[in-house]
Amino acid sequence: MESHLELKLKSTIDTLTRTSTKNCYMTETKIKVLVAPPKGSQELNSYISWLINEGFDPHILNKYSQSIYAPLILCGGADIGKNPERDELEFKWIEMALENGQPIIGICKGMQVLNHYFGGDVKDLDDLIVEGHTADNFELDEDHSEKKSHMHEVVDLDGSKMTVNSRHHQYCSNIPSNCRVRHVSVGGGYIPESIEDPKNKIWAVQWHPERYEMENNTYPLCNLLI
């Protein structure tokens, strides 16, 4: 039986699907994506709205989900280890996605979960570089939708810069061999802000495009269309 939250979210999805007309990615057949949900309902609504506005067809995973048959979206959340049940589910879904050859998109904690899964390290930001990255406490396993963002610049592999919204107090300090860093922070030390593994169709970022606080809110979703 569906919960009240699931029914409410289905209604939201139906409404957004009917009213969304602005997206350059909108096609006759939308790409289905599977969402590993964050803690709070407001946060989940933000991800669902973002995905629908960008022309995708989101379906929400739960603890009974046993197959990853479409691209996997890993959302933001508390530090790894704060919610062991969620961590284990996401590790399982990553494994299923890899086995089925499905792409994976990671947002904030989603990037850290991917980095950890493949053997990388996740550490707290040093006091000397934390100022440009975090404006609030994101350590606890709670709804983070009302917490503040900091805006700062990142640079791409080709040298182009863009401003992103940062809401993390941890970072991927050691990147696994299968991944490469795509964006790094400008100033304040070498902070990986996005990673990618094109072979396994994995793209992940530390910032939050679902909040629509930036000029470019399509990356890394655009990689699902390549």
Describe this structure in words.
With 226 residues, this protein is an alpha/beta fold. The protein has one domain: 3-Layer(aba) Sandwich (Rossmann fold), CATH 3.40.50. Helix content is 24%, strand content 25%. The protein has four helices and eleven strands; from the N terminus they run αβαββαβαβββββββ. A nine-stranded mixed β-sheet has the order 2-1-3-4-11-10-9-6-7, sandwiched between helices. Strands 5-8 form a two-stranded antiparallel ribbon. The radius of gyration is 17 Å and the shape is globular. About 10% of the residues have low confidence.
Number of separate structural domains = 1
Number of strands: 11
Q: Over the alpha carbons, how many angstroms does the gyration radius reach? A: 17 Å
The CATH superfamily bears the name: Class I glutamine amidotransferase (GATase) domain
Strand count, sense and barrel status of the largest sheet are: 9 strands, mixed
Low-confidence stretches: 16-27, 128-138
Major beta sheet, strand line-up: 2-1-3-4-11-10-9-6-7
- Given helix and strand content, the structural type is alpha/beta
Number of helices: 4
Q: How far apart are the termini?
A: 37 Å
Order of helices and strands: HEHEEHEHEEEEEEE
CATH class category label: Alpha Beta
What is the fold-level CATH name, i.e. the topology? Rossmann fold
Helix content: 10-25%
The fraction of residues assigned to DSSP E strands is: 15-25%
- Shape designation: globular
Labels describing this entry:
single chain; 226 residues; Rossmann fold; nine-stranded mixed sheet; two-stranded antiparallel sheet; 4 helices; 11 strands; 25% strand; globular
